């Protein structure tokens, strides 16, 4: 058995090279290193002063990566109790003070939150068909100049009104991209 099975490696920032364990859970698949590297090249290596929301947090790869790169605030939302507890343990291990882990449903969090975020990571379980429901709700939580990261098995046929593609790519079976508010 591999030493890195069920571990995700932080690729940049203060926690760089740290390996974080995560539990076996249905539908949990961390964003691949190559995709994360491209994403953070797009976003800029430093997220200083930015607030980030990692919905369907799973392994926490995206949220921990953002915290590692000096984000002012990172909120991770995870429904699975076992996965939530793992995220909490990793948060404490890293002593990541800017990071909050919320136990709960991502769609309910979006509906009930009034906070806006500069970067929202939206990477729902591929087989759950949550992306079409989450996108319009995420748009409401996106700051005026914010960016919305989307990762899916298949790129959405249609985006909600008000969103446009800033950048988009594919790595293996993973489609991913950055969305922003439509100008005007």
UniProtKB/TrEMBL annotation:
<dbReference type="InterPro" id="IPR002052">
    <property type="entry name" value="DNA_methylase_N6_adenine_CS"/>
</dbReference>
<dbReference type="Pfam" id="PF03602">
    <property type="entry name" value="Cons_hypoth95"/>
</dbReference>
<keyword id="KW-0489">Methyltransferase</keyword>
<keyword id="KW-0808">Transferase</keyword>
<dbReference type="InterPro" id="IPR029063">
    <property type="entry name" value="SAM-dependent_MTases_sf"/>
</dbReference>
<dbReference type="GO" id="GO:0052913">
    <property type="term" value="F:16S rRNA (guanine(966)-N(2))-methyltransferase activity"/>
</dbReference>
<dbReference type="InterPro" id="IPR004398">
    <property type="entry name" value="RNA_MeTrfase_RsmD"/>
</dbReference>
<protein>
    <submittedName>
        <fullName>16S rRNA (Guanine(966)-N(2))-methyltransferase RsmD</fullName>
        <ecNumber>2.1.1.171</ecNumber>
    </submittedName>
</protein>
